[in-house]
């Protein structure tokens, strides 16, 4: 019994460490995306000052910036949804006989983590006009067509 409890605790510790590393890797990747887009924007501004006719480059930079901002929002929602799970998992490792409050927090934090999946499409629809228009077209077509089965 003691070996199995120790094994479970070690697995929980490994999972917590892996999850923490995933958070750090995602943060590094987002920062890399942000600085790359910032660098490209600065390069394009310099080129734009030299050649005023490159309107296409500035539009591309604007799209890249919007995409980076959208990525930031997705990353922020990910952190808000998954960081409580990570913190509660660490607390469960620290407080070996977990209290009922901690178990309740675990249930709420896992629910919040599952909420991340439906929030991502909402963010994309909110931030990207072409996706928003496509979704409104789909919803409009669903509700405007007469039901063929009843005819």
Compact overview of the structure:
With 151 residues, the chain is an all-alpha fold.
Supply database-style keywords.
151 residues; mainly alpha; Rhopdopsin 7-helix transmembrane proteins; 0% strand; flat
Estimated helix fraction? over 70%
CATH-wise, what's the superfamily? Rhodopsin 7-helix transmembrane proteins
Cα end-to-end separation: 66 Å
What is the strand tally?
0
Residue ranges: pLDDT <50 for 5 or more in a row?
none
- Radius of gyration from the alpha-carbon trace, in angstroms: 23 Å
| CATH A-level architecture | Up-down Bundle
Note the overall shape: flat
Sheet bearing the most strands, described? Answer: none
Number of domains: 1
Output the CATH class name: Mainly Alpha
Q: Strand share of the residues?
A: under 5%
- Output the structural class: mainly alpha
Listing every helix as H and every strand as E from the N terminus to the C terminus, the arrangement reads HHHH
Quickly count the helices.
4
Describe the structure.
This protein is mostly helical. The chain has one domain (8-144): Rhopdopsin 7-helix transmembrane proteins (Up-down Bundle), CATH 1.20.1070. Helices cover 88% and strands 0% of the residues. It has four helices and no strands. The chain has helices at residues 2-50, 55-94, 100-127, 129-144. α1 (2-50) packs antiparallel against α2, α2 (55-94) runs antiparallel to α3 and α3 (100-127) crosses α4. It starts with a helix and ends in a 7-residue tail after the last helix. The model has no long low-confidence stretch (mean pLDDT 79).
């Amino acid at each position: 019994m003691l070996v199995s409890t120790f094994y479970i605790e070690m697995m929980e510790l490994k999972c917590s460490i892996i999850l923490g590393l995933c958070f750090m890797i995602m943060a590094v990747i987002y920062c890399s995306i942000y600085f790359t887009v910032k660098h490209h924007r600065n390069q394009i501004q310099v080129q734009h000052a030299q050649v005023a006719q490159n309107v296409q480059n500035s539009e591309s930079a604007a799209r890249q910036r919007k995409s980076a901002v959208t990525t930031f929002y997705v990353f922020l929602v990910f952190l808000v949804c998954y960081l409580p799970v990570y913190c509660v998992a660490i607390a469960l490792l620290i407080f070996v006989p977990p209290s009922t409050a901690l178990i309740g927090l675990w249930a709420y934090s896992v629910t919040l983590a599952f909420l991340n999946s439906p929030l991502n499409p909402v963010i994309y629809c909110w931030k990207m006009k072409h996706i928003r228009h496509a979704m409104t077209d789909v919803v409009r077509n669903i509700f405007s067509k007469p039901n063929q089965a009843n005819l």
